[in-house]
Design goal:
Elements (H helix, E strand, L loop, with lengths): L12 H13 L4 E2 H8 L3 H13 L4 E3 L4 E4 L12 H15 L3 H15 L24 H14 L3 E7 L3 E15 L2 E8 L6 E5 L3 E6 L32 H7 L14 E7 L3 H7 L4 E7 L5 E7 L6 H7 L3 E5 L1 H15 L2
Antiparallel strand pairs: 1-3, 2-3, 4-5, 4-8, 5-6, 6-7, 9-11, 9-12, 10-11
C-alpha cells in the first residue's frame, strides 16, 4: 500500500529532521527515497536534510541502497536536550551561518555544549567561497527581522520595492523563505492576490517593509478565512502555497524560483572544449539532457523561465559554448559581448 503523503506543517525541514534523528537514534536505517515519498518532497531535499545533519557533527554512514544510519556507537543520549530541540538547533544553525562569522562561532559553541557535536566538524575540509556585499543599506537587519517574523507567523507584508527597471512600487506579499546567494539576501514570497504567484525581492532594494494591519486585509491566501472568523472579517495572515518548497527545491539559481509551468523556454547549446566538463556535471536548468554532436562536442538542452537562468553559465564558458536556440537568447549574448567590446 502506498504511503499517505503528508501535506501539513510536517513537510517543513524542521519536522523532517526531527523524524530523521528519531529514527536514526532508534537504530533504524532511514531510506532517502522513502522519506521523499512520505514527506512529498524531492529526493534532493532529503539529501540536503542529511547534509545539514552531517555538517552539524552527527556521525552518519551509508547503509544499503540509499539508506543512512548512525555510525556504530553514536547516540543522541549524550545530549542534554530532546531530539526535537536538537532538530531545532540544526535548523537554526543554518540561519546563524548566514549572519556572519561571529554569530556563527557563538552559535557553534552553544550547539556543541548542548549536543556534544561540533557543527564546524566539516568546515576544515569544505570552505565555501562567496562574495560579500559591502553596500548593504543600514536598515537591512531591521527588514530581515520583520520578514523572519512574518515567515514564522504567516503574516502578510506591505513592501515598497525599488526595481532597477520599473522603479518604486508597492506590493503585498506573504513571505515564505529568505534566500542567500552571491552575497545578496532575497525574500521569496507569494502575492496576496489570487492566484498567489511567487515573487522574489532583493532585500537591499526593499525601501519599506511593514506588516499588514488586520483591518486592511479582507482575505487570506487560497481564499481561506481564519478559523472562527465571521464573513467579512479582516485578516492579515496567509496560508503558504503547498508547492512552495517543491518550487524552491527545483530552482538552480535565484532566477529559477518560479512555477514549473513558467519554465517554457527551450534552450539548446552546443558545448565543447573545457566547458564540456562543467555542463556535463552540473545541474543547471530544468529537464536538462545531453546528446552527442560533431567533433567530440555535445548538445545541452533543457527548460528555463528566464534567460538569466542560463546566461551566467554561457558567459562563464565562452568561447566553448554556442547558442543554438532560442534566437533571443543568442541575440542577448551577442549584445552583451558587443557592448563589452565597444568600451
Amino acid at each position: 500500500m502506498a504511503r499517505k503523503k503528508i501535506t501539513s506543517q510536517r513537510d517543513t525541514q524542521h519536522f523532517r529532521i526531527i523524524n530523521i534523528l528519531t529514527r536514526l537514534d532508534k537504530g533504524e536505517t532511514a531510506v532517502m527515497r522513502r522519506l521523499a515519498e512520505e514527506y512529498n518532497v524531492s529526493l534532493r531535499a532529503i539529501q540536503r536534510d542529511f547534509d545539514t545533519i552531517e555538517a552539524c557533527g552527527y556521525e552518519i554512514e551509508k547503509s544499503g541502497k540509499g539508506g543512512r544510519k548512525f555510525a556504530p556507537g553514536f547516540s543522541l543520549s549524550k545530549a542534554r536536550i530532546s531530539v526535537e530541540q536538537q532538530a531545532a538547533l540544526v535548523t537554526l544553525y543554518q540561519l546563524a551561518a548566514n549572519m556572519g562569522s561571529e554569530m556563527k562561532a557563538h552559535f557553534g559553541a552553544l550547539f556543541e555544549k548542548l549536543t556534544g557535536c561540533r557543527p564546524d566538524k566539516l568546515e576544515q575540509y569544505v570552505v565555501p567561497v562567496m562574495p560579500v556585499n559591502k553596500a548593504q543599506p543600514k536598515n537591512i537587519d531591521e527588514t530581515m527581522a520583520k520578514l523572519e517574523s512574518a515567515i514564522l507567523h504567516r503574516q502578510l507584508m506591505n513592501v515598497t520595492y525599488l526595481s532597477p527597471r520599473s522603479g518604486s512600487a508597492a506590493h503585498r506579499i506573504g513571505p515564505l523563505k529568505l534566500l542567500v546567494t552571491e552575497g545578496y539576501t532575497y525574500v521569496m514570497g507569494q502575492r496576496a492576490d489570487p492566484p498567489h504567484e511567487l515573487t522574489v525581492f532583493r532585500l537591499d532594494r526593499i525601501k519599506k517593509c511593514e506588516p499588514v494591519e488586520p483591518a486592511a486585509s479582507g482575505y487570506i491566501a487560497w481564499g481561506r478565512k481564519k478559523k472562527g472568523a465571521s464573513p467579512g472579517t479582516s485578516d492579515a495572515y496567509f496560508e503558504p502555497r503547498p508547492d512552495a518548497q517543491e518550487i524552491l527545491d527545483a530552482a538552480h539559481n535565484i532566477w529559477g524560483v518560479m512555477e514549473p509551468r513558467k519554465k517554457n523556454i527551450r534552450v539548446k547549446l552546443e558545448v565543447g572544449g573545457w566547458a564540456a566538463n562543467y555542463f556535463r556535471n552540473q545541474e543547471l536548468i530544468a529537464d536538462q539532457r545531453i546528446t552527442p554532436a560533431a567533433g567530440g562536442a555535445f548538445f545541452f538542452e533543457g527548460r528555463v523561465g528566464n534567460n538569466m537562468e542560463i546566461i551566467p553559465h554561457i558567459l562563464r564558458c565562452l568561447p566553448d559554448v554556442r547558442v543554438v536556440s532560442p534566437p533571443d537568447l543568442k541575440a542577448e549574448i551577442e549584445t552583451r559581448l558587443k557592448r563589452y567590446l565597444s568600451r
